[in-house]
Amino acid sequence: MSIWEYANPKKFLTTSERVLPALWVTAAVLTCAGLVWGFFFTPDDYRQGSTVKIIFLHVPSALIAINAWFMMLVASLIWVVRRHHVSALAARAAAPVGVVMTLIALVTGALWGQPMWGTWWVWDPRLTSFLVLFLFYLGYIALWEAIEDPDTAADLTSILCLVGSVFAVLSRYAVNFWNQGLHQGASLSLDKEENVADAFSNPLYVCMIGFGLMFLALVLYRTGTEIRARRIRALMLRERMDA
Amino acid sequence: MRALLLRDLKLALRAGGGFGLGLAFFLIVTVLVPFSVGPQSELLSRIAPGILWLGALLACLLSLDRLLALDWEDGTLDLMATAPLPLEAVVTIKALAHWITTSLPLVLAAPVLAVLLNLPGQGFLWLVVSLLLGTPALSVIGTFGAALTVGLKRGGLLMSLLVLPLYVPTLIFGAEAARRGAEGMAVETPLLMLAGISAASLALLPFASAAVLRVNLR
User: Fold this and answer.
1) CA distance A59 to B7
2) Which of A36, A184, B48, B136 is most buried per CB count within 10 Å?
3) Coil vs helix vs strand at A238
4) Cβ distance B67 to B98 under 8 Å?
């Protein structure tokens, strides 16, 4: 028994189908609970008023946006090294989720920035590097869509993901250097004294876990879809060969 | 290797279009900027380093389409892949040829166009130095993009979407170095970062380009 057993598409499908219902329910309950708790049962911040509550959407989506790319990087590496199809398809399945999360983080950030900083957008390092991340996602998805043969597409997108990761990190530091920012530093960390007050951080943790589980469920579900789409393609090719 | 480089250079010179096109594009961008932002000379001299860098980058991007596509169409690329020369060397030579035919003229033309944009006198040297250090990275990254999209029917547009995010760090440090040079500030840090990006891209990206090309030639 090893984790590589799940690289078998059939095994992956049966297992993920068994896990998914519970995962959907937990993710939905945690996300809803976290958001409702965050939006309706936390006090208004003494300086920021009720706008502070946008963090319950903004922070978890930003967290997933970055980690989705990281997950795609790991999946791409597994594809390059061990050539498990499920891994490549999981990377493909994660990209649209990642791009939506990036968009949510950008939009909620803009909505919050308008009343707080007095502007929708500034060329701040964090904001700018997120915009660049958004472009990386778009390019990655576009390359997947552009190539017909699934194995070629998997190979090319994996290498793009590896190269893109290096440049994404580089861009992060480059924009840091380029412009000093307006965005506050990390609000949550394990080793720092100065965290967000407990009243906010507890529902925020719930939201983060909820978003994480939702991401996991979406990726598993979409990977299943990709596997089936691949099978249909294979069947149709065979049919065309026979005809 | 030398033969390949000479062949690419000759092709670029004799085929026409490709060689001068980048330069013409660079000129057009520079000429259009005063029309779009207004002709005030102090405004122009402030944005000149950034505009010149952006123009050079776009001109570089414009010519990437032809970098591998022609060789792909007539099958030369397959021959090169089976030649005793490793594919990594082939793509490096290709990038070098692209740099000589496209980026080097841009670097040489930049000071002339900088006059049009009223760049302060002390900025000329640093503009040229930053372009010299930065454009190799643009060529190498561009070769990677061209290799990714070589088999596709309409790869050009997709390639710009793939390549532009990869150009971000180079553009930031290059334009920053040129801007600081023009304003008479210390330029060492961005120049060093720029050189670092170029060196690292030159060292690593040919392997990625060759790997991608092998997949595409499969």
Assistant:
1) 54
2) B48
3) helix
4) yes
- Mutate: best of B215, B216, B218, partner A, most A CBs <10 A: B215
**What pLDDT is stored for residue B218 in this prediction?**
78
Cβ proximity of B113 and B52 under 8 Å = yes
| Pure H helices in chain B | 2-15, 18-37, 41-73, 76-82, 87-98, 104-116, 123-148, 155-182, 188-217
Measured CA to CA, the distance from residue A78 to residue A90 in angstroms comes to 11
Higher pLDDT, A179 or B121: B121
Dihedral-angle region of residue B121 (phi above 0 means left; psi in -120 to 50 means alpha; beta otherwise)? alpha
Long-range (24+ apart) CB contacts under 8 A made by B187-192 are B187/B126, B187/B130, B189/A177, B190/A177, B190/B130, B191/B126, B191/B129, B191/B130, B191/B133
Residue type, position B106, single letter: L
Contact A219, A93 (CB under 8 A): yes
Would you state the pLDDT for residue A192? Answer: 46
Q: Which residues of B touch A175 (CB under 8 A)?
A: 168, 172
B149: closest CA among B159, B139, B160, B140? B159
Taken as a whole, chain A contains a residue count of 243
DSSP state of A187: S
pLDDT at A178 over 90: no
pLDDT tens, position by position, B145-193: 999 888 787 777 888 889 999 999 999 899 888 888 888 888 888 889 8
Among A78-92, B41-55, B73-87, the least confident range: B73-87
pLDDT digits (tens, 9 = 90+) for A213-230: 999 999 999 999 999 998
Note whether B148 contacts A143, CB cutoff 8 Å.
Answer: yes
Enter the ipTM.
0.84
pLDDT at A49 over 80: no
A178 contact residues in B (CB cutoff 8 A): 172, 176
> Helix count (H) and strand count (E) of chain A?
6, 0
CB atoms within 10 A of CB A58: 19
